[in-house]
Give the backbone structure.
Amino acid sequence: MSSERTAERHVGRLDDLAPGQLRLVDIDGTRVVLARAGDAVYACGDACAHKGGPLSEGRLSGTRLACPWHGWMYDVKTGQCVIPSRGGRVPSYPVRIEDGELWLDMGDSPE
């Protein structure tokens, strides 16, 4: 792994995450939900911006993830809350797929 990718973490295999499935991963105490939409995998913070509900226990429809507590809906591509439209956002993280392996980029300083 090159020094440019030191923030990347291996988080599993693409084949182990079915389309429409969510998976919670813990990266050094940061809870991140992986969401598979078709052939793409997205990652965002697990705590809803509203009341902290566990997004990993929510429902994924396309690239929209609904919080199980009060139904706030997020775009997993960006972390932006879309319902309600002024609901804020959750952190989003890039996911790289290489040879069927999932690599999560937490950046230089994970939150």
About this structure: The longest strand covers residues 30-37. Residues 3-105 form a domain with the Rieske Iron-sulfur Protein fold (CATH 2.102.10.10). The mean pLDDT is 92.
